[in-house]
Amino acid sequence: MLLGVLATCRPGFEKECASELGEVAGRGGLSGYAQTKPDLGYCVFHFTSPANESCMDVFQWKNLIFVRSLFFLPTARLQVPETD
Questions:
Q1: How far is Cα 27 from Cα 58, in angstroms, rounded to an integer?
Q2: What H or E segment, with its residue span, contains residue 17?
Q3: Phi then psi for 71, rounded to 5 degrees?
Q4: 20 to 30 A from 81, CA-CA: which of 14, 19, 35, 44?
């Protein structure tokens, strides 16, 4: 089961990346919310309920504009130091 998606992006484009992930998730029937802070270069989209591996087909990174890389999260706890 997967609990979310971590997407890296250019610093300063976190809002656009989060919006794009939300739009793609909605089209794929997944609900959730994005969490991000300005200028960190990443955002996390948390699924409202755990999703199975088939959700990977929804997030095709090559079709996303603001996403540089995409990682699926098997756990809800993601700790990245703000200085990293």
A1: 8
A2: helix 14-27
A3: -135, 135
A4: 19
pLDDT in tens, 6-44: 999 999 999 999 999 999 999 999 999 999 999 999 999
Give the separation between CA 9 and CA 23, rounded to whole angstroms.
16
Proportion of the chain above pLDDT 90, given as a percent? 71
**If 0-12 CB within 10 Å is exposed, 13-18 middle and 19+ buried, where does residue 16 land?**
middle
Q: Which amino acid is at 28?
A: G
Q: Which tokens is 82 given?
A: 């703000």
**String of DSSP letters for 68-79:** SEEEEESSS---
